[in-house]
Amino acid sequence: MAKFQGSRINPKRFSVSQIKFYIILVPLAVFMMIPIVYSVNQALKPIGEIYAVPPKIFVRNPTLKNFKDILALSGTTGVPITRYLLNSIIVAILTIMLNLVITVCSAYAFSKKKFRLKGALFQINQMALMFVATAVAVPRFIVIMKIGIMDTWLAHVLPLAAMPVGLFLVKQTVDQIPNALIEAAVVDGASDLKIIRRIIIPLTRPALATSVVLTFQTVWDTTEASNNYITEETLKTLAFYLNSIATNNAIAAAGMIAAATVILFLPKLVIFIIMQSKVMNTMVNSGIK
Amino acid sequence: MAEIKRKSGSHRKKGSNIFGGMNTFFLLLPYGILFTVFIAIPTAVAIGLSFCYFDVINPPKYIGLLNYINLFTQDEVFLKNILPNTFKYALIVGPGGYVLSFLLAWMLAQIQQIPRTILSLAIYTPSMMGNVFVTVVFRNIFAGDQRGLLNNLLMKLNIIDQPIQFLLSPDYLMNIMIFVSLWSSMGIGFLAMISGILNIDEELYEAAYVDGLKNRFQEIIYITIPSMKPQMLFGAVMAIVNAFNTGWIGVQLSGSNPTPEYAGSLITNHIDDYGFIRYEMGYAAAISVVLLIFVALFSKVAHRLFGERED
């Protein structure tokens, strides 16, 4: 019989046996960071260094000119970048809040309730996950036009408020909560809302946090609504604006594109760092065991 | 509702009120409405369009299965380039990305929390950069003149003396696409797996070693993976969906759709090509339906492996 030396998952202390993992993980992590490190350096380069031959990865004389240029640029329509930024923030907050509430409720129902067609409905949700976005673009445009939410905030928020991926992820985690726990709560007279607040949300924090990260990334990066459902320039988002710089002046503005990358990247990084302690933590005091 | 519940609370049989009823309906209602309006209806319309000729301007005209018949009999590019490309790409990127995510998550779970957080963040960064911007970086790295970082490096080391047109050459494009995809495949599935592994009850391992578990490999097979089936399933489905749906890579890297000699064209590019370049939406919809069927078949396999039995 092999002797058990204690689980090596989530160790509290360093031991020599961990070195082998560091040997693999550290170089890999450095490798994965190349593009973002490259982008940051590129964003800080003055124009001469960007087009230098031979190319250099690291910046010699860092400058903030690219960022200043991009902030000063207010497009042909005269809408300042801060307006796009504000729009993006509003859209992100609204979408995340709505999405979270909707996802938790439906994940709980799909996981712990019995109702007719449950299996079939979840299958449909799975299928939706797999259907290519491009194929749905035109029909979705027609739907949005028909229900009359073109050129409103709702066109940004509603299409992303129900996210099949998020539901799938959270439902998978709710599945791991023992039914006995829910049943006990029901016997004690807890309502569904109370069960969600007191049991489901606390016990699915990692999945919910992951879902928030995902929603934020999606909503922050998407240009679908701004491209298709919004004609009003003052309602469009930052991602749309920066993407249009990147695709329109690919050669003229390499430095500005890099700056745009960094500007779009930073909030995602911040949200991830805020959420990571939830995403990657064990549920130490959970009732799950 | 709540009152009725309380009244019948103590002597209620399991299964009657606990599960089901009006509450369930209201819990599902918001998701149901939004899903129906923004996802289900457009998808259904797209599937309907696959049986039509539709050029976006004139109303769709029903043509039965003609789009599908053409796709599998007339569309030489689809049969000769697109399908083999898609399968090659998906079969490497899907399982490859999946196994890599799991191994990395597993290794990360075995180091201390602070280094784990930092390393996970680093490994996750590619997924945080937007598609457009990822390819801008890789276009610079693989650029076909001396300004390309890779060409520059290879020339400095005297491995080549002429820059290689990596992104325009059919020989390289597909491999570069696979590389870039694998590199950015540590996404949401990877995060779910980390939390899955970290949340496995330690007593399980202990009990298993008492029962005669011998090594780490057995530990992964008998304890780790079975205990995190939901996350494994989620990761698998995400890997499959990504493998089939990330068509933008080849087009963005080479800068054209179709890609040079169709070397990096995947099924999604073919959809874009017909849908938004030739405006044959009906035909594009038919290709999407075929793609959907592929993805669904593969995810069936994933469900077989990791799905929970319905209880």
Short description:
The complex is a heterodimer of chains A (289) and B (311). Chain A is 69% helix and 0% strand.
Overview of the molecule:
The complex is a heterodimer of chains A (about 290) and B (about 300). With about 290 residues, chain A is mainly α. Chain A is about 70% helix and about 0% strand. Chain A has helices spanning about 20-45, 45-50, 65-70, 80-110, 120-130, 135-145, 155-160, 165-175, 180-185, 190-205, 205-220, 225-230, 240-250, 255-280. The two termini of chain A are about 25 Å apart. Mean pLDDT of chain A is about 85; it is low at about 280-289. With about 300 residues, chain B is mostly helical. In chain B, helix 2 (about 20-50) packs across helix 15. The longest helix of chain B has about 35 residues, at about 75-110. At the A-B interface, helix 1, helix 4, helix 5, helix 6 and helix 7 of A face helix 1, helix 2, helix 4, helix 5 and helix 6 of B.
Tell me the structural class of chain A.
mainly alpha
Shape of chain A: flat
Radius of gyration of chain B: 25 Å
The helix fraction of chain B, in percent, is over 70%
Strand content of chain A: under 5%
Q: Which sheet architecture does the biggest sheet of chain A show?
A: none
Largest interface: A-B, 119 and 121 residues
Number of helices of chain A: 14
The tally of beta strands of chain A, per DSSP, is 0
Overall pLDDT score of chain A: 83
Largest sheet of chain B: 2 strands, antiparallel
DSSP summary, beta strand count of chain B: 2
* Overall 3D form of chain B: globular
Low-confidence stretches of chain A: 282-289
Strand fraction band of chain B?
under 5%
Q: Look at the structure and give the mean pLDDT of chain B.
A: 83
